Structures are given as structure tokens and as C-alpha cells.
Amino acid sequence: MIATLFQYDFIRNTFIVGLVIGVVAPLLGSFIVVRRLSLMADALSHVSLAGIAVSLFLSKTYGPLAGLNPLYLGFGFATGGSLLMEKLRSVYRHFEELAIPIIMSTGMGFSVIFISMANGFNTDLFSYLFGSVSAVSRSDMWTIAGIAIFVFVVILLLYKELFLLSFDEEYAKVSGIRAKVFDMIFMVLVALVIASSMRIVGILLVSSLMTLPVAAAIRIARGFKQTIIIAVIFGEIAVLGGLISAYYLNLAPGGTIVILSVLILILTMIYQKIRIKWILSKRGEENGIISE
Q1: What does the alpha-carbon distance between residue 165 and residue 212 come to, in Å, rounded to a whole number?
Q2: 213: which residues sit within 8 A by CB, 6+ positions away?
Q3: What is the pLDDT of residues 166-204, one digit of tens each?
Q4: Nearest residue to 155 via CA among 40, 47, 41, 26
Q5: Which compartments is it annotated to reside in (predicted)?
Q6: Is 248 helix (H, G, I), strand (E, B) or coil?
Q7: Helix axes 38-61, 99-117, angle to 10 degrees
Q8: What is the reported pLDDT for 214?
Q9: Domains of the chain (ranges plus CATH)?
């Protein structure tokens, strides 16, 4: 059954993109969770939706733009939204979390307006909202792969600075790290990964792939690097399992990927609970032996 699955080009494209997204989404998600900015991914995904809606409207309204790939405007809107969010965070220094609902509301507002102007929902928009096994074209695959490589290289080059800013921003600033510059770079990377992931997971569920594998990894990892590695493994399991399930059950892959991620989280929580009980029982036995 698996062999027959990969006989189609669009399926191969989808799984290649899934493998790539399964790495970069939890990788960046690890920094997002540590920074307590988990809702930021939701806000930028709604801005991406606005870009998709504008693109679909333009392609319907203006003939020369009929072949416009919505992915490009999705990238543009997400990047612009990330820069604006970082600016708002500096404006509301004592209420930085306000930047997230402001950007999210703006993105949703534009999305609703342009969706209604484009005569409502259609198949293309539905695939962007919830993901699709058959929606990834060859050009999409190369675009997303190129962005993923760029994100991965930047993370490797700036890992030390991003690590310090995530765990101790004050110390990072004292050490001479230009926090605003690196925060801006980080926001743009998040925006690019969100826009890249929407083809597979869907705009409304993309933040789950950036946070749920990390939430599961935190339960069993020892240290930040181990958290990243385990989160990537969990992300790949969820993506590949979700895509295969979605194909054979004729479901939107976003939902299957998210549910698998939730199941992984539940299993790690059960494992941690059993492990703690085992450790406590061992210590109790050791204390009993010592007292004797």
C-alpha cells in the first residue's frame, strides 16, 4: 500500500514538503515556546490567510494575475505582519502581548473582507485553511524547500544569540547582542515557516505543529538541545503519519497531523507519570534498605 502511495508526483511532492516542515516547524517552535510566544504563530497564520485571500481575489478579478501563486502573497503578508508585530511589541513595552491580538485581528479582518470580495470559499481556499495532500505543486515544493534551507542555515549561524535571547534577554543585551535586530530576524523566520507549512497543515492549524511536538518533548527531554531533537522526531512522526492517514481516509491532513501530535503529547505525559512513580518507588526501596 505504501509503495502505491508514492507512484503519484503530487504525493511525492507533499511528502517531501512534509519531511522538511516536520524539521523546521518544531525547530523554531522550541524557541517560540521558551520565549512564551506560542500565540504568535496563530497571529501570523491569520495574516498569511489575508495574503492568500488577497491573492485569490486578484487572480479572479484581474486576468493578467490569474496564474498568481497565493503562496507568494502569503509569504509577503506573513513577513510584513511579523515586522509589524515586533514594532508593536516595542511600542507597548509593558504590554507586549497586546501585539499578538492586534495583528491577529487585523489579519482576520482583511481575510474576511477579501474572501467575501472573492465570492466566498472555494476548493483552493479550503486547502489552504486545512491543508491538502494533493495541493503541493513542484514549484511549491522547491520554494518551500529553499525557504526551509534558508531558515535552517540562519538558525545554525545565530543559534548562540537566539539561545541567549530566549533564556536571558537582559544578559544577552549586556553581552552586546543587538536584541532588536535578532528579534526581527527571528520573527521573519517564524513568518516564513508558517507560510511554508500552510500547504500541508493548513493556516488554521499550523501553530499546532510548532508547539505540540515541543510541548511533548519538554516532558521527557533533558536540556534545550535534546528538546529540539525530540520535538523534530515527534514532528516528523505526526506529519508522516498524518499525511498517510489523510490520504487513505480521505481527510484534511491538518486535522490528522494535529490529532497525532495530541496523542504523542498524551503518551509522553503518561510516560512521565509512570517514570516518576517508578523513580519514587526505587528511592523508597533504597531508603528502606538504608534504614535497615
Answers
A1: 22
A2: 25, 26, 29, 231, 232, 234, 235, 238, 261, 264
A3: 888 787 778 888 888 888 888 888 888 888 887 778 777
A4: 26
A5: Cell membrane; Membrane
A6: helix
A7: 20
A8: 93
A9: 2-206 (1.10.3470.10)
